[in-house]
Amino acid sequence: MQASDWDDVRRIYVEGIATGNATMETSAPEWETWDAAHRKDCRLVAREATRGGEILGWAALSPVSERCAYGGVAEVSVYVAAAARGQGVGRTLLAELVRASEEAGIWTLQAGIFPENLTSIAIHHRCGFRTVGVREKLGKLGGAWRDVALLERRSARV
How far apart are CA 23 and CA 88, in angstroms? Predict the structure, then answer.
């Protein structure tokens, strides 16, 4: 992912926000804010091979803490364009993100997913994540309390 991809990445992020089951966020930030919050080495986009390289989805990691002890722990974000859902884009992105994270020395990946987002949970399980538990009423979205399933993947390589 490059800064020049941001318009498409942001559009896909906004599509995810609109589902009400992807994030607690209600709007997408500007590039500078997003860029500062995510690791520079594990950012991916999936491009359509036959339509001029249209971006179909993206994945990135953000640090969970600035403390040195957690330097190898990162949180996963994966978003797929509405028109590309159900085509394996999310699983491909997550599998590649796992590979890239291990190359970057990440030993634990975590994901917070709304329990209603069964597709995302299934994709994470297929990529080696396990459900640790459900954090009840973790935050409010649209005035309603939302639970968040916590998933993690521990690398066997790092």
Answer: 20
In this structure, whether the domain defined by 3-154 belongs to CATH 3.40.630.30 is answered with yes
Rounded to the nearest 5 percent, the helix, strand and coil shares of the chain are: 35, 30, 35
Q: pLDDT (tens digit, 9 = 90+) per residue, 31-75? A: 999 999 999 999 999 999 886 789 999 999 999 999 999 999 999
The DSSP element (H or E) to which 12 belongs, if any, is helix 6-19
- In the chain, the largest separation of any two C-alpha atoms, in whole Å, equals 44
Which positions ≥6 away from 132 have C-beta within 8 Å? 150, 151, 152
Q: What are phi and psi of 149, to 5 degrees?
A: -75, 135
The residues spanned by each domain of the chain are: 3-154
